[in-house]
Amino acid sequence: MSVNLGYSSDISLDARLFRSSVFFLQLPTFYLYVLSVCYSDFRLKPKHLVHIIPFLIANLILLPRFYTVDQASKISFLAKSSSMPEIQLNHIFIHIQIALYIIAAFMILKEAKKIYLEIMQEQVLNHLIGYFSLPWRSQDFTSLPC
Fold first, then answer.
1. Cβ-based neighbour number of residue 62 at 10 Å
2. C-alpha distances in Å from residue 142, one per residue of 132, 133, 136, 138
3. In sequence order, which residues have a C-beta less than 8 Å from that of residue 59 and are 6 or more positions away?
4. CA distance 55 to 22
5. Rounded to an integer, what distance in angstroms lies between the CA atom of residue 125 and that of residue 112?
6. What's the pLDDT tens digit per position in 91-114?
7. Secondary element (H or E) of residue 99
């Protein structure tokens, strides 16, 4: 059974709240995307599953008072959602997550920029060394007729 609380779609209340908690996966996905763009050898590893933890915590917080109760309690929960501690805690978590992941993404970009500039500087230096070590540049100029 689904209840329409002013939404045009006809999906269950569980699915609506679960869909809104998917936001906890967006910033980790963005962070992993930044890593993959900055580092050509980047591969997803089991250690990257740690980024799912905020999503799991957000849904575990809602488990006792939303996901496991009857339909009437869910409607009451959503009607008073702005004053519910679970929702307020999730709002705090999402703001912390936004700040941390944006900072982490900029740190990765800063580090990648530093590495990229070092590589480019080395390549430019190699080109200059190659240019000045051409055979016509390295000949003995004292043997030239004047």
1. 21
2. 18, 18, 13, 12
3. 18, 21, 67
4. 7
5. 20
6. 999 999 999 999 999 999 999 989
7. helix 85-132
Q: Which residues contact 112 (CB under 8 A, 6 or more apart)?
A: 38, 39
Four-point Cα dihedral 109, 112, 114, 116, nearest 10: -130
Q: What local confidence, expressed as pLDDT, does residue 146 receive?
A: 53
Q: How far apart are CA 124 and CA 60, in angstroms?
A: 54
Closest listed residue to residue 97, CA positions, set 50, 43, 146, 36: 50
Residue 30, token pair as written in the block: 């963005």
d(CA 7, CA 49): 33
Query: How far is 13 from 76, CA to CA, in rounded Å?
Result: 11
Please tell me which residue, 46 or 131, carries the higher pLDDT value.
46
| Tokens 């250690």, located at residue | 47
Are 55 and 24 in contact by the 8 Å Cβ rule? The answer is yes
In whole angstroms, give the CA distance from residue 113 to residue 69.
50
pTM of the model: 0.71
